[in-house]
Amino acid sequence: METTSINEVPINTTTGLPFKNIVNLTGACYEHVTVYTPGIWNSEYGESILEHAFYRFSVQLLLMFFLSHSMHFFLKYLHMPRITSEIMTGILLGPSGFEKWFPNEAKLVFPASPNQILAALSKIGYVLFAFLAGVKMDPSLVQQSGKKSVFMGILIFIFPFTMVHTITMSFRPEFRPSNQLSIGIYKGVGIVLGAITTSQFVGVSHLLNQLRITNSQLGHLALASTLVSELLRFAYSSLLGYMEAMLFIARRAGVQAIIFSMMLVAFIVVVLRGLVLWSIRNTPQDRPMKEIYITFVVGMILTLASVGDTVGMYYLFGPFLLGLVIPAGSPLATSLIAKVETPAAGIFAPIMVVFCSTSLDLEKFLRNYAKVLPFRISLIGYFLKLGFTFVVALGFELPVRDAAAYTLIVNVKGILEIGVLLSFGNLGVCIYIFPVFSSLIFSFPF
C-alpha cells in the first residue's frame, strides 16, 4: 500500500480500490501547557505565566474579589447590597469593560475557552446556597401562618406558570412554521420568563436575612407562602419533565425517572432525617457536634445534587429538601450554618455572580434591544406578576403598605436567577438586567 496523507483515501495497490474507513483518524493537536509555570525568569520567548491554569485562576480570583470588595466599600454607603457590587464587577471584567479596553490582556486572563473551574465552583456555591436556605427555614411556619400562607403560595405559583405556558404556546414551532426563530424564541421565553416571574424561596430568605425582618409577621408570611410555592414548583417541574420523557424519549424512561425520584425523596425524608435526629440526640447539650456529622452532611449535599440530576430531578431539590429535614435551631443546624455559610456566601456565591456577569455585554444588548424578544416579554411578565401579587395580598386583607412590601419581597431577583442561567447555559444577556434592577430596588429599606 502506498503512503498517503491522513486526509487522502488510501488505495489498495493490489485491487486498485480504496480502503474503507473503519476508524476516524482526524483530530486536533494542542500544545501541552503545564498547570504550574517553571518561573517568571525561566519563561520561554513569548510565554506568559497566565498561560498556566493555576496562576491564571489565582489572578482571576484576585481581580474578582479585589474589584468587588473595593466597589462595595463605596456602594455600601448608598445601602447597596453586595450582589450589586459583584454584578458590576462581572460587567467590568466582561465585554463591556476589560475585554473592550484591554483586549490582549483579557485574552490571557479570561480566555475564550470555557472555564470549567469557575463553572464548577459556581455550581457548588449555588447548591450550598439553596441548602442553607432550607436549613434556616422552619417548616412549621406554614402551619403557624395558617391557611392564608398556603392559599397565597398556591396563587403566586399558579399565575406565573399559567402565563409562561400561555405565552410560550404562541411561539411553538408547529404553530408558527414560517418563523425560523420560533424554536429559539420558544426556548428562550420559556426559561427566562419562568425564572423572572417565579417567586424563589431562597432569594426571599436571603433578602429577609439582609433586612433583618425574618422573625416579623410579614417575614413569616413571605417565607411560608414562598415555601409552598417552591415545593409546588419543584413537583410541577419534575412532573412535566417525566411527561416529556415518556412522550419524546420512551415510556420506560419516564416511569424509571418517577420511581427513582420517589425513592430519592423517601431516602431523604426517612433515612437521612432519621440519621440527623439520631446525631442530634446523641450529642450532649454542652458539647459541639462531631466533625464526622458535619462532614457527612456536606458530602450528602453534593451527592444528592448529583444523584437528583441523574434521575431526572432538578439538582437543587435534593439539597434543599435535606436542609428542610434538619430541625431549625438544632445544634446540627447551627454548626452547619457556622461552617458552610462563610465559604458558600463569601466565596462560592460571589464567584458564581461575577463569573456569570462576565457574559453581559451592555453595548450589544442596547444595540440589539429591539431584537431581544424574550427580555421584553419577561419585562412585561414581571410587572404583571407584581400587580397580581399586590392584588392577592390586598385580597387577603393585608394593609396597603404591608401588601406593597410583601409584593416586593416575594418578587426579589438576584442570585437564583443568575443560577438559572448557569444551569441552562448561555442564553444571552436577558436574565442579568433583572438582578441589577432588583438589587438597586431592594438596596433601600422599606
Largest sheet descriptor: none
CATH architecture grouping of the largest domain: Up-down Bundle
Strand content: under 5%
Q: Average pLDDT across residues?
A: 76
Net shape = globular
Structural class: mainly alpha
Q: Report the order of strands and helices.
A: HHHHHHHHHHHHHHHHHHH
CATH class of the largest domain: Mainly Alpha
Ends apart, CA distance between termini = 83 Å
Number of helices: 19
The CATH topology assignment of the largest domain is Na+/H+ antiporter like fold
Radius of gyration: 25 Å
Number of distinct beta strands:
0
Into how many domains do the coordinates divide? 2
Share in helix: 55-70%
Low-confidence stretches: 1-7, 19-26, 174-184, 426-432, 434-446
Membrane topology: Multi-pass membrane protein
Family: Belongs to the monovalent cation:proton antiporter 2 (CPA2) transporter (TC 2.A.37) family. CHX (TC 2.A.37.4) subfamily.
Keywords: Ion transport, Membrane, Potassium, Potassium transport, Transmembrane, Transmembrane helix, Transport
GO molecular function: antiporter activity
